[in-house]
């Protein structure tokens, strides 16, 4: 399984290399795209080499992603993607952070979900983290973040 | 952490290992190859304007890994990797002031602040600084020396406390890292586009790393790409106006030295790869 995952990964990198090379060589003026063409050419050659080695079984493969690992990370990744691609901009950074932080903590905190004490602890940890972030970045350092609906 | 899931995350407790200062210093000198590579790489990279400590650390780490017989231990907190990255990160600080003090080119945000401070006082870095204000130039150099000593003392006291970060539960740490990643990516240019790029690359690299690819080239490309492109365009324009690109980029002592270093690094990697494959084949045959 690890080898097939490695082949798929290297194939995707090679496909990106071909796409980038094609884009850079079809853009004009040629002089302005000289650097991207040079880099893309080297990139596609190396990506092709890596893909060839992967197909022939000559390259070292990683530890891979098992089914259990993927199932473990899927909920966290879904929450993270919603947080990054929708909530942070739509709800405002600090509101989205508070909600996202609490959900992630609730999903992955090993403390039992049936105890009220563990839920109180999660709420406190979330509140303290968001308060520190807001106090430090918004009030003290005046760093701008998206503040759309709430704060 | 997401990948470990709820039960396994709770089961893993990271213990902070305590060593004496003498043992740490002994280890530092025992890993003299990593220390040398880190220091030399960091010093050279520090001279290049706009290239930060992260690049120095990554390049030194990568080079040390290439030359190390313990490649498999890299990425697990192995002292060689830590020493290489951290010595490069520290070694680049002093040389990063060279472009500022000699050419008025601020190579880092810190250097830009220093440049602002000098200009406010009517001091222009370059020949003016060394000819008319040598006291200021020497203050910079001496403060770097004193800073190293003070940083050593401060570091020894803070290191014990900083190591406790590793004891934060992973469920909390994962959520903190996600929030700070979004905040950090957004605050650079106040752009959600940067956050989306960060998320896409982060997720892609997680999977690619699990499939056996290294994240270092991607990070180097992202950070060095714009710098290399801007300088290549500048060099091309000068080359076109003078001797042509071929002669301009492929001749001269420094160019040839850099080309030789790159070729030697590639050749060494290929040689090591072939050698390790030969050993693996021999071991398999013996087994």
Write structural notes for this entry.
The complex is a heterodimer of chains A (151) and B (287). Chain A is built from five helices and no strands. Chain A is 75% helix and 0% strand. Chain A has helices at 2-26, 34-56, 67-90, 93-108, 116-140. Chain A has 151 residues and is mostly helical. Chain A is flat, with a radius of gyration of 23 Å. In chain A, helix 1 (2-26) packs antiparallel against helix 2. Chain B is built from 14 helices and no strands. The model of chain B has no long low-confidence stretch (mean pLDDT 79). By secondary structure, chain B is mainly alpha-helical. The chains are: A mainly alpha (151), B mainly alpha (287). Chains A and B meet through helix 1, helix 2, helix 3, helix 4 and helix 5 of A and helix 1, helix 10, helix 11 and helix 12 of B.
Summarize the structure.
The complex is a heterodimer of chains A (151) and B (287). Chain A has 151 residues and is mainly α. Chain A contains five helices and no strands.
Which labels suit this protein?
heterodimer, A: 151 residues, mainly alpha, 5 helices, 0% strand, flat, B: 287 residues, 14 helices, globular
- Give the overall shape of chain A, derived from the CA principal axes: flat
| Share in β-strands of chain B | under 5%
Major β-sheet annotation of chain B: none
Instruction: Estimate the mean pLDDT confidence of chain A.
Output: 86
N-to-C order of helices and strands of chain B: HHHHHHHHHHHHHH
Percentage beta strand of chain A: under 5%
Question: Spans of chain B with pLDDT under 50 lasting ≥5 residues?
Answer: none
How would you name the oligomeric state of the polypeptide chains in this document?
heterodimer
Q: Find the structural class of chain A using helix and strand composition.
A: mainly alpha
Helical run tally of chain B = 14
Query: Biggest interface, and residues per chain?
Result: A-B, 51 and 43 residues
Shape of chain B: globular
Number of helices of chain A: 5
Largest sheet of chain A: none
First-to-last CA distance of chain B: 37 Å
Number of DSSP E strands of chain A: 0
Radius of gyration of chain B: 23 Å
What is the β-strand count of chain B?
Answer: 0
């Amino acid at each position: 399984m690890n080898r097939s995952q490695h082949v798929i990964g290297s194939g995707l990198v090679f496909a990106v290399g071909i796409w980038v090379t094609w884009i850079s060589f079809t853009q004009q003026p040629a002089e302005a795209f000289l650097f991207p063409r040079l880099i893309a050419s080297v990139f596609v050659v190396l990506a092709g080499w890596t893909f060839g080695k992967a197909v022939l079984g000559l390259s070292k493969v990683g530890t891979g992603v098992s089914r259990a690992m993927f199932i473990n990370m899927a909920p966290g990744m879904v929450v993270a993607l919603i947080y990054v691609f929708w909530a942070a901009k739509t709800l405002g950074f600090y509101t989205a952070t508070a909600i996202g932080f609490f959900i992630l903590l609730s999903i992955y905190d090993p403390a039992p979900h049936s105890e009220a004490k563990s839920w109180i602890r999660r709420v406190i940890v979330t509140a303290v983290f968001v308060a520190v972030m807001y106090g430090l970045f918004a009030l003290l350092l005046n760093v701008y973040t998206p503040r759309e609906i709430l704060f | 952490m997401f990948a470990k899931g709820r039960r396994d995350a709770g089961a893993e407790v990271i213990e902070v290992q305590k060593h004496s200062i003498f043992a740490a210093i002994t280890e530092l000198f025992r890993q003299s190859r990593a220390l040398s590579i880190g220091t030399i790489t960091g010093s050279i990279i520090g001279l290049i304007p706009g290239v930060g400590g992260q690049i120095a650390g990554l390049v030194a780490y990568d080079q040390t890994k290439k030359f190390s017989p313990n490649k498999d231990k890299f990425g697990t907190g192995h002292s060689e990797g830590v020493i290489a990255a951290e010595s490069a990160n520290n070694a680049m600080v002093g040389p990063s002031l060279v472009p500022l003090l000699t050419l008025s080119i601020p190579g880092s945000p810190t250097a830009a602040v220093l440049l602002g401070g000098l200009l406010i006082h009517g001091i222009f870095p370059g020949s003016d600084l060394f000819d008319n204000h040598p006291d200021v130039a020497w203050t910079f150099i001496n403060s770097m020396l004193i800073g190293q000593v003070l940083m050593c003392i401060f570091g020894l006291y803070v290191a014990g406390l900083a190591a406790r970060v590793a004891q934060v539960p992973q469920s909390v740490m994962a959520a903190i890292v996600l929030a700070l990643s979004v905040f950090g990516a957004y605050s650079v240019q106040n752009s959600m586009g940067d956050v989306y790029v960060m998320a896409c690359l982060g997720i892609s690299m997680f999977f690619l790393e699990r499939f056996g690819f290294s994240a270092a080239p991607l990070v180097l490309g992202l950070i060095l790409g714009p710098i290399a492109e801007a300088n290549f365009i500048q060099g091309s324009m000068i080359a076109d106006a003078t001797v042509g690109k071929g002669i301009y980029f492929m001749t001269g002592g420094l160019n040839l030295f850099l080309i030789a270093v790159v070729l030697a690094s590639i050749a060494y990697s290929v040689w090591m790869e072939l050698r390790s494959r030969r050993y693996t084949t021999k071991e398999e045959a013996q087994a």
